[in-house]
Amino acid sequence: NKKAFVELLFWKSPAIVCEMTKGYSSLQEGEGTTRSRVSPWTPQEEQELRELYWKYKEVEGGDIIAAILAHLPTPGRTRRQVVKQLVRM
């Protein structure tokens, strides 16, 4: 492909770069470019998160997010998801 150099100037993600360097269709289906969808926070989960935040925010020298994750009833939430949701709220 004579225009491949132009494509190299406009990378979109590491997965696409890998695909360009290793050959197209080198990624297996479901790998790289498609991200798994994160389930949205329900109003119930938001309320529980708010309560846990207010409970643990006064703890001196403790990691608030770690305490919230330990007591969050919904498994599978990551630290980043919790922080992002707290900032959004």
From TrEMBL:
Superkingdom of the source species: Eukaryota
GO cellular component, one term: replication fork protection complex
A molecular-function term among this protein's GO annotations: DNA binding
Biological processes, Gene Ontology terms: DNA repair; DNA replication checkpoint signaling; replication fork arrest
InterPro entries: Timeless (IPR044998)
PANTHER family: PROTEIN TIMELESS HOMOLOG, TIMEOUT/TIMELESS-2
Name of protein: TIM protein
Organism: Rhabdornis inornatus
Lineage: Eukaryota, Metazoa, Chordata, Craniata, Vertebrata
